[in-house]
Amino acid sequence: MKPYLAIIRDSFHAALSSRVLWIAFVAIWLVLAALAPFGYQEDLTADFRGARDLENRSRLRGLLAQGLKDPELADTAVGRLAAAMPEKIAEELADVSEGGETTLRTSEYADALNKCLDDESWYDKEAWASTLRLAELRELDELPDGELDESMRRRRARLRIEAAMPGVFATRSAKSITLTYAGFDFPAELAVDKTRFVGIINQLVVPLIIDWLLGFILIFLGILVTASMIPDMLQPGSLHLLLSKPVSRSMLLISKFIGGCAFVFLCVIQLVVGLYLVAGLRLDIWNARLLWCIPVSVFLFSVFYSVSVLAGMRWRSPILAIGVTTMFGGICFVVGIIGGVFDGFVTGPARIKSIAVVGDVTFASTQGSGLIRFDKDSNEWVEIFGSDAISMDRIIPPVVIDDDTIFTARTKGGRMNPFGSGSADLLVLSADNAWEPEPSLSLPPATVRLYKAADSLLTLSGSNLNQTDIAGVLAAAGEESAGESREEKTPQTPDLTGGLLGRLSSMLGVAPTGFTSVLPRGMAVAPPRVLILSASERELYLLSRARLLRLVRSEDGRSWTQAAEYELEGDPSIAGVIAVSDAVVMVSRAEQPIELFDSKTLEPIAQVDLSDRLLPTSVVGLGESRFMLLTSDGRCRLVIPGVDVENAFILSEQVGPTNVEAIAFHAEQNLVYVAHHTDQVDLLNADDFSEQGAISPSLSVWRRVDKYVIGPLRFVIPQTGELGETIGSIVSGKSAITMRDASGEEQVVRYDILRPVFSCSLFIGVMLMINCIYFGTRDY
Amino acid sequence: MNSKSSTDAPIVHVENVAKCYSKWSLRGNRRVHALKGISLEAARGEVFGLLGPNGAGKTTLVKVLLGVVRPTSGKASVFGRVAGSKFARSKIGYLPETLRVDRHHTARSALRFYGRLSTMSTQQIDKRSDELLELVGLQGRDREPLKRFSKGMNQRLGLAQALIHDPDLLVLDEPTDGLDPVGRSEVRKVIERLSAAGKTIFLNSHILQEVEVVCTRVAVLANGEIRGSGTIADLAGKQDADVVLVDVCFDDEGAAKQFIEGASESHPDLALALDPNGSPRGTHRLVGKVNQQHSVDQIVDLVRAGGVSITRLDVKRPSLEDTFMKLVGKATREGSGS
Prior knowledge:
The structure holds 2 protein chains of 2 kinds. By secondary structure, chain A is of the alpha+beta class. Chain A has 5 domains: 2-35 and 196-345 and 711-731 and 753-777, no CATH class; 39-44 and 172-192, no CATH class; 46-170, no CATH class; 353-491 and 503-518, Lipocalin, CATH 2.40.128; 519-677, YVTN repeat-like/Quinoprotein amine dehydrogenase (Methylamine Dehydrogenase, Chain H). Chain A is 41% helix and 26% strand. In chain A, the strands form 9 sheets. In chain A, strands 4-5-6-7 form a 4-stranded antiparallel sheet, with no helix packed on it. In chain A, strands 8-9-10-11 form a 4-stranded antiparallel sheet, with helices on one face. Chain A has a 4-stranded antiparallel sheet with strand order 12-13-14-15. In chain A, helix 9 packs across helix 10, helix 11 (194-226) runs antiparallel to helix 14 and helix 11 (194-226) packs antiparallel against helix 16. The longest helix of chain A is centred in the middle third of the chain and has 35 residues, at 249-283. The radius of gyration of chain A is 31 Å and the shape is globular. By secondary structure, chain B is α/β, with parallel strands linked by helices. In chain B, helix 5 (122-135) crosses helix 6 and helix 9 (232-239) crosses helix 12 (320-337). The longest helix of chain B has 18 residues, at 320-337. The A-B interface holds A 2-3, 5-7, 10, 13-14, 16-17, 232, 235-248, 779-780 and B 21, 63, 66-70, 86-87, 89-90, 92, 94, 96-105, 109, 113-114, 116-119, 161, 171.
């Protein structure tokens, strides 16, 4: 190995003597010097920041107007707050409640509330005693005023306002970050706490910097500098001398290749170590995973360099080597774009988001806001609503009502905001009607989920939970049961259609005709939240802002009352998934261990560690206290009771297929439906997870093109652009990134880590082999 | 017995080696025959000179010996192993015609690099570097960057790197190119010293005088073929006889012509004639060809018998250049004729 190490070392010396390298060094030092003054300050979140914090503006106006107008509410928390509003707002509230138009901007409401933070004369202990206070507020309330500093006092005031008007405000972390540059504050603060801030830096900022600086600029610079290495080596006076030494040609070339990477390595090591130190010293983010960017960047460079070496050997011209490599980069880019277009417009929208099984008919909603039904005869998914990449509509995941009926809804413009561009009708699909969607009752505004609870249908709408009778829905859709008249089945609800109360109710998001609000008074299901019903459909488990609640349905089925509560640790703004299986409730949240609770008391039973890399995406209860958890890496694992130890649970290895999109459990069939690889579904036995059947739909023309042309093309031509995802995953230590869309729905975007690494490795291997054969068999 | 035979075995053995380059282009495949069945041998301790005009195939032959180029047919071996094998290359020190060492090196670091390529240890390299830098006259300048080196200094460094691993066979391609007369003389001395130490030297040079001085055997290559090989004396002997120049004093032009006519009739083998290039003032120059001393004596006897005075007598042996020009000229004519 000695001769080859000498060649590699010589390449390092050659690189260090290059003027371009030193220019690159200086440029890197300048970049680091420009980044070094960044710093941050962390403070308690207090001020309301306009539309971003006041998520449900109409509910805010409604509550305040109600508090102002309703004399019964005068001494309640909301009444006192309403009374503290400045005159301008009070006038508008009065005007609005009588049918006038809103003229004031949201920021003016935010300003008014911010003033309330400084002057707490509106606070009354008794009035707030009946509100639902977060643990943080309860702790602050217990502290004497003297022990609170200004920021804690303002924070307490904000929490009191939030408690007074549940369902109005977006969930914000308790602490906010303000960025500073050279000691000067940035004008806007980031409404994230330190953990989120670290996440943002690691998942977005650092990969972006690395992508641009390492993935583009340094690679191009590296190609420029190293393009002459091989042509130089092939100069007769140099090559013949090298070849006269007792070294193997292939190893000589590989050593030169490794040596060629020296340039990039020397630059990357400085930049990455510099970024690591800046992030650590200035932002307190000591992320050693960042150092993985060094080998990944050199790996990325070697993809291009392998092309440069071949071109350099063939034509012995640095200019041609640069030209060919740039063309190759262009081809990679174009193929990447085409692949991205296919992902975005062909496979992406077709990916299954949720599954509903009615008898032997399988329905699914897709990422592209489509609703599809699998037709066994034609072996393809039949579109009820087409999947569309640019669709702004939102499909509410279908819910199974009985053996031949499902309910769903389609909110126009629902992807832009939870309310959409108008009220959506509940859609009834039944086998009798050839699964044609039949409109039924108008859904309450901002409905995002439907649940079946015995003979009722629950809707999660904004921060409310509403209920209606299924029979009434069916009747409204014209699906009347024999012997039952429509009038008889229409649920009795108060007339909210007119007058002051009606107007306010509408603003408060209270349900239209046919729906009743079922939450206990003063309770709101603030996001992030997730709901699940027990198998008996008479108990409801709710995880909202790190509070786990158990609600029990009253005997008459008209209301739900709180039966148990448990406050979870951790940031309340982190979303989670929930499932119930017999006497156990499972909760899994990002970067938290899986938690299991007694389904009656909500007392914690056990915790199971889950890698921070994995974000929980979905979970289903399989009975017998077993759960199947789908995580962001597209794999399913089981959470099952330990064999010998009581109250201990274990997380199994992966079960079922990979690239899983969604899971659903059909208790009667005892089958788990696992949607994977875009729109395929495997039916697994819920006991031994053996495959009992599968849905492998025939592909459309474009999907065929994607599978047989674009896919192989993306495999053969290394997708260097996708290595950015690998870097993102490595730096953040996560297998996916969570994005919250405009409607507040969280979307997990899975990092494709292995494909680019595999395709790039294969490419480098093949190119090196070609290079070695060419160099080894050629006469010079 | 074995050791004797291995000692006597040729260090370089080339047998019927042919090399044909194919060049593909849009116009079709063009074939160039660089070597056309060459055979030669170089024994241990020999300084073997390879001569030939540009394009004769000298460099291709050297490349075959180094393993840089694979022969199309025939066999080439070095130290009894296939030319180009790792073992063979480990025994060869090569100085290319235009040495190109990366500019970031100093003389010492370059020697270290090439020493490592020859699998030497750092201690071995350091020790050997000191000796060689002194040998080639670069001591004291060994830590200067190569960009400050003159062509001659580069060439000296090239010689040093070729010797760094103490090879048994040195392949030198124009070793004195770019050197001043003192440098040339030093290189010649080095070659002689190495030869005396039992090293075999394969010298490829354009400078015929140099080859004439240092080489024990030569091969003349033209058009990819060997036109002659052997010691310089052998080559000259094979090609031509010695030339005798006699300056004599005839009374007049007529007497001179009469003498020539008489001598041609009595001794046609001497091929006596008047030198067409003229003669010193007041004399006539006779030119004859001789193969032995007896013939010289016969010419003297003939002239003296005619009562003519001899002012000067010179026997000229043909130089390597003459031989080379003749061999190459023949080859060129044949080449152009074919």
